Amino acid sequence: MTEPPRFAIVGRVNKGKSSVVATLAEDDSVRIDPRPGTTTEVREYPVRVDGRTLFVLLDTPGFEDAPRALAWLRARTTSAADRPLRVAELLRAHEGTNDFADERKLLAPILAGANVLYVVDGTRPFRPNYEAEMEILRWTGRPGMALVNRIGTDDHATEWHRALDQYFKIVRDFDAFAATFEERLHLLQTFRELRPDSRAAIDEAVTALVAQRLRRRADAAAEIADLLVDELTHTEEIAASGEGTLERERDRLERSFHEWLRAREEKARSRIEAIYAHSAARFEGKSLERPVFQQDLFAEETWKLLGLTPGELITAGTVTGAVIGAGVDAAVGGASILAGTAIGGAIGGGAALIGLGRRFARVRLAGSGGAAGWLEAAWRYWEGGRRFRIGPHAQPNFPWVLLDRALLHYDNVVRRTHARRGAIAVSDGSGRAGLVADFARAQRRRLDELFRAIRRSDGDPPRELREDLEMAVGRILERVDPVAVDARAR
């Protein structure tokens, strides 16, 4: 079996080598520290899919005394053909000493056959003393590529390219903190041109990574669909002899109901982060406040910025307005006096506006009449005078707010590279911050039909309904995270 390609990430200390490794390996365990010299040993990070190692990344210590090491090599070399041998001699001659300790550690895997990825910080000016590092790497005789990483805000990439082009056949800009999935694939594909003997292995790696990305997206769609189903069908009950008992239990039951909804959303988020191998994703707004999708599910700001406007809810509700009343009867388990069917045709799309200002479901008896009263019964009702139930949450905008939050969270997860640590600043934008408002009218109507059908399912939606919702969410995620299935040919 052919050994997977190996890539040694090398360069001067504190230039982002470990950040590049973390991003390419999708590994949060790679140690990243702003203090220089934190990587003191060579560490291997295999990139595996389905248990198979596709390639191996080597995080290495940084060059510390390259000019003196190059002087040592030049003093003992008479022919260019001898240069790889002299580099190997440098390692042997100083074994067991403290001389050139970091240089020996980073050069050893290169002499053993690893490809070279030389990393520089393109936000810092080029200095001639970097030439010693590049010259030593050239002496190894191994194929190499230079990456112009970006750590700060200044831009010195042009001068770096002019220098690097003299030592490396391929020079690429690569921002480890913002690289897309396609950019990571393209970097891997570039080595096909440097190592013809590794082309088959690299093609296999690209194909496997694309398949994994598609599978992750499908898994995320299933997770979001499950979240919507669970949230739209959740109910809680208490036994009570009458409304007086209910009054004593009201706060506890309402608090329990809404805490369950919050916890279920958080569980879905953790699962999606795990799908993309993120172990500690945290997000914050530009003002160091939590972005809207990280705020409380029932916060006023959340409902102001996410979901659909009243007019958009009317548009979606108009299509099914004639059956709203029947939906109310079904949602309350027949507990109403079947007034829902009578009011459905009369209120039409306007039913979407009923109770729109309410973000919280409440436990109490339904009103004795009027469209608003019977729609309230969709999320609170009383059975046989002995059991009180809260749920499912029937506010028309609730599934849209929930979906918006899930999509915003997903978008930030798939765009977050593993080089980014701690709280990650995201843009909340201005005005409407969500995504569902941009859906085509037909798409909103279809989703609205699915949401209504789920709510009418009495807590147990048929498998076909779940699959339809999963497919609908999957099509949305395709736009959020498009993946080129023919990436290998690019």
Report on the structure:
With 490 residues, the protein is α/β, with parallel strands linked by helices. It is built from 17 helices and eleven strands. The strands form three sheets. It has a six-stranded mixed β-sheet with strand order 2-3-1-4-5-6, sandwiched between helices. It has a three-stranded antiparallel β-sheet with strand order 7-10-9, covered by helices on one side. Strands 8-11 form a two-stranded parallel ribbon. The two termini are 27 Å apart.
User: What fraction of the residues are assigned to beta strands by DSSP?
Assistant: 5-15%
Q: How far is the first residue's CA from the last residue's CA?
A: 27 Å
**Cα-atom radius of gyration:** 30 Å
Q: How many strand segments?
A: 11
Tell me the number of helical segments per DSSP (H or I, 4 or more residues long): 17
Biggest β-sheet: count, sense, barrel? 6 strands, mixed
Largest beta sheet: what is the strand line-up?
Answer: 2-3-1-4-5-6
Sequence stretches where pLDDT stays below 50 over 5 or more residues: 318-356, 364-384, 427-432
Q: What string gives the helices and strands in order?
A: EHEEHHHEHEHEHHEHEHHHHHEEHEHH
Q: What value does the average pLDDT take? A: 80
- The level of helicity is 40-55%
Keywords:
490 residues; 6-stranded mixed sheet; alpha/beta; 17 helices; 3-stranded antiparallel sheet
Please give the structural blueprint.
Elements: E1 6-11, H1 17-25, E2 43-49, E3 52-59, H2 66-74, H3 83-93, H4 101-111, E4 115-121, H5 131-139, E5 144-149, H6 157-164, E6 170-173, H7 181-194, H8 199-233, E7 236-239, H9 243-275, E8 282-284, H10 300-305, H11 310-319, H12 324-331, H13 339-347, H14 371-376, E9 380-383, E10 387-390, H15 398-415, E11 423-425, H16 441-455, H17 463-480
